[in-house]
Model the fold of this input.
Amino acid sequence: MISSTKNSVLGLVELADTDDPINLHGSTSSRVLRDVFHDRLKGWVRSKDQWRLLNNNRVCVILRDIGSQGELELAAAKLGRIFKEPYYHRGRLMPLEVSAGFAELNGRDEDLKLAMQQAGIALKQAQKSSQLFDVYLSEWGMDASDERELVKQLEIALETGALQLYYQPKVHAGYRSLIGAEALMRWHTKDQKIITPDQFIDVAERHEIIKPMTWWAIKSAVARLARWPEQLSIAVNISPALLLEDEIMSVVQDALEIHGVTPARLNLEVTENIMIDHQDLVLSQLARLRDLDVKISIDDFGTGFSSLAYFRDLPVDEIKIDKSFVLRMLESEKDLAIVKAIIDLAHNFSLKVVAEGVENLDIANRLAELHCDILQGYVFDRPLPVEEFEKEYRV
Ligand code: C2E
Ligand code: CA
Ligand code: CA
Done:
């Protein structure tokens, strides 16, 4: 954290590439946008600060003499205020959306690179949780004792209800109607931060805590399903090691029975990588789960190194194309070819295909043309707190 001696803080500030119907990306308007971005930044930094353009919509700043977390929060609040003001271009109102990641910077040159990386992680964290800014926490690069502390905190979070499931809609590619949601974990800390799973799932998976966390996720998703219309499903992510636990069978079965939920409405997402090791064991466990009539999806498909041969007997229902291919499919011929190949492969084996990471309508429309079945991504919604999801989708 920011210590009491006056320190420098490195920040990365990014202007969102808002997917704007009024041609923000046209060459004139993107130039205008860049100029507006720079002008506003000039109103934010003080004369003792430094800043450098990294590209049209990202800058690196060094804020001098920041003595406390509070001072940094004040600086960030000012950034928010400055960008809150919309601007007008050719008589139209153009929204501006900015986010920032900060990291502490020590005086040495070699620390600059590290601080840049850390600020980048914080920026991503801020964007994921739709916050104006985030500050890199030293716990994010942990040693063993930090890791034990994090596990302890997770245990408390699980007991006190600080872990929550957010829901991101999955929609029918053709009709764009809601067919269900993926449940994604969020950790609400005491200091009002929302931590995304990439900050804690890896650690949880190295400890026993992943088990109660996952069982809890299954139970709360099924409880939610009991209140939702019959045609909606929920997908829960299952860490690879847990799929091989016998206990998963009874957890799933009991939850479905207690809440009287049709098993086919519960979807378990497992990553492709799990197929590489223990192939026979995995296949038989997947088959047992499917005997319960629960649906199975292969997540992050395309990133693993599984052999196509196992496809023949794979007891699954759905494949999710990894977002890295989807995000770039309109710019990169190679990514488009991968997306097409996965859709064809899945359909040849009578599996449904989900594309995740659908960030704009051009991608959504192209995927529908390619006969992808289901879409998920920011263009529809980010993962939402359950009340918000239910309100927005009237479930
Ligand atoms: P995942 O299963 O691949 O989940 C999809 C991730 O992509 C989510 O990140 C989601 O917020 C993000 N995403 C969705 N739409 C878009 C988009 O249009 N663009 C971009 N750039 N990203 C998009 P999230 O929620 O941070 O989750 C990250 C990962 O954490 C998940 O990846 C999953 O592997 C893991 N995870 C989340 N919840 C759980 C859980 O309950 N149990 C386990 N074991 N793992 C979980
Ligand atoms: Ca998933
Ligand atoms: Ca995925």
